[in-house]
From TrEMBL:
PROSITE patterns: G_PROTEIN_RECEP_F1_2
Protein's name according to its UniProt entry: Olfactory receptor 51A4-like
One GO MF term: olfactory receptor activity
Source organism superkingdom: Eukaryota
Membrane topology category: Multi-pass membrane protein
Keyword Iron: no
Membrane-spanning ranges: 33-55, 67-85, 105-127, 147-169, 208-232, 252-272, 292-309
Pfam families with a match to the protein in the record: 7tm_4
Subcellular location: Cell membrane
SUPFAM superfamilies in UniProt: Family A G protein-coupled receptor-like
Taxonomic source organism: Cyprinus carpio (Common carp)
Gene3D superfamilies hit by this protein: Rhodopsin 7-helix transmembrane proteins
One Gene Ontology cellular component: plasma membrane
Domain G-protein coupled receptors family 1 profile: 48-298
Length: 328
C-alpha cells in the first residue's frame, strides 16, 4: 500500500509546463539573415526532393532496388525538412518563441524519426553498392524490389516504434526549474537536460539511438567500402575499377554530407566549449544542408536521372516552340 502511495505521489509531482521557450539565435545582430538562408535551403530541399520523388515514381525504368532506396532517402529528407524549418520560421518571424508542450513532443518525434530514417537508408544503399560490386553475379537474387521494399517496411516500423517510445518517455520528466530550450527546435537532448527528476531511462534511450543511428551506421558503411576497395583491387584494369567506383560516387557524397557536419560538431565540442549560438548554427546546418544537397548530388551524378531530366526539358522546349510557331 505504501508503494502505491509513493508511486501516486511521484506521478502527482511531475511538473509539465504549458509552453517551452525556444531560444534559437539570441543576442546576434542580423540573425534574421540566417533565418532567410534557412528559408532558401528549405525551398531548394522541398523542390529538389519532390522532383526526385516524382521522377522515380513516374519513370518505370527507375523502379529498381537502388532507386527504392533513393526514393526513401528523398522522402526522409522531405519529412525532416518539413518537420523543423517551417516551425522555426513561424516561431522567429512571428516574434513568438513559445511552443506548446504537445507541439514540442510532436516536433521532437518527427525530427528524430526522419533523421534516423536518413541514416538507416544510407546503410541500406551502402549494402546495395557492396553486393553490386563484390557479388555482381548474385546481385539480382539477393537484392530485388521485393526484398528492398520489405527491408524499408521493417526499418520504418522499427524506427517509428523506437522514436515514439523515446518521445513518450519525455512525459515522465518533471520540469520544475526552467522551460527554456537552448536550441532551434524542441531538441530531445536539450529538453531532457532540463528535467529535475531522474532521467536515466531517457539517457539510456538517447545513447541507444546515437549508437544505432550514428555510430553503427558509420561503422557499417566504412566496413562496406573497405570490402568494396578490396574487391576492386582484384580487378586487373584501371578502367574497370574506375567504372565500378563511379557507381559509388553519389552514395559517398551523400554519406559525407550527412556524417561530416555531425563529426565536425562532435570534434569541435571536444576541443572547445561551444556557445549556445554556435550550437544552434552548427546543429541547424547539419540538419538543413543534407536534404538540400542530396537531390542535387543525384541529379549531377546519376546518369539515368540526368538523361531523363534532359529529355523532359527537351520535350518541353519543343512543345513551346511548336506553340509559338502556330501563333505566327
Amino acid at each position: 500500500m505504501s508503494s502505491l502511495n509513493a508511486s501516486f505521489v511521484q506521478n502527482m509531482s511531475i511538473v509539465r509546463p504549458e509552453y517551452f521557450f525556444i531560444t534559437g539565435l539570441s543576442g546576434i545582430p542580423y540573425s534574421s539573415y540566417y533565418y532567410i538562408f534557412l528559408c532558401v535551403t528549405y525551398f531548394i530541399a522541398v523542390i529538389g526532393n519532390s522532383a526526385v520523388l516524382l521522377i522515380i515514381a513516374l519513370e518505370r525504368s527507375l523502379h529498381s532496388p537502388k532507386y527504392i532506396g533513393v526514393f526513401n532517402l528523398a522522402l526522409a529528407d522531405l519529412g525532416e525538412t518539413n518537420a523543423w524549418i517551417p516551425n522555426t520560421m513561424k516561431i522567429f518571424f512571428s516574434d513568438s518563441q513559445y511552443m506548446s508542450y504537445n507541439a514540442c513532443l510532436a516536433n521532437m518525434f518527427f525530427v528524430n524519426l526522419f533523421v534516423t530514417l536518413q541514416s538507416a537508408t544510407l546503410v541500406i544503399l551502402a549494402f546495395d553498392r557492396y553486393i553490386a560490386i563484390c557479388l555482381p553475379l548474385r546481385y539480382h537474387s539477393i537484392v530485388n524490389n521485393t526484398v528492398m521494399s520489405l527491408v524499408f517496411v521493417v526499418v520504418w516500423t522499427f524506427n517509428t516504434s523506437l522514436v515514439a517510445l523515446t518521445a513518450s518517455l519525455t512525459t515522465q520528466l518533471s520540469f520544475c526549474k526552467s522551460n527554456v530550450v537552448q536550441s532551434y527546435y524542441c531538441d530531445y537532448g536539450a529538453v531532457m537536460g532540463m528535467a529535475c527528476n531522474d532521467n536515466s531511462i531517457n539517457m539510456f534511450f538517447t545513447n541507444l539511438i546515437v549508437a544505432l543511428f550514428l555510430v553503427a551506421p558509420l561503422f557499417i558503411i566504412v566496413l562496406s567500402y573497405m570490402g568494396i576497395v578490396f574487391a576492386l583491387s582484384k580487378i586487373t584494369t584501371w578502367e574497370a575499377r574506375l567504372k565500378a567506383l563511379k557507381t559509388c560516387v553519389s552514395h559517398l557524397l551523400l554519406v559525407v554530407s550527412f556524417f561530416l557536419p555531425v563529426i565536425c560538431i562532435y570534434i569541435a565540442s571536444l576541443i572547445t566549449s561551444l556557445t549556445p549560438n554556435a550550437r544552434v548554427i552548427s546543429g541547424s546546418l547539419s540538419l538543413s544542408l543534407p536534404p538540400m544537397l542530396n537531390p542535387i548530388i543525384y541529379v549531377l551524378n546519376t546518369a539515368e536521372i540526368r538523361v531523363l531530366i534532359q529529355k523532359l526539358l527537351k520535350n518541353r522546349i519543343v512543345s513551346i516552340r511548336k506553340n509559338i510557331s502556330k501563333r505566327r
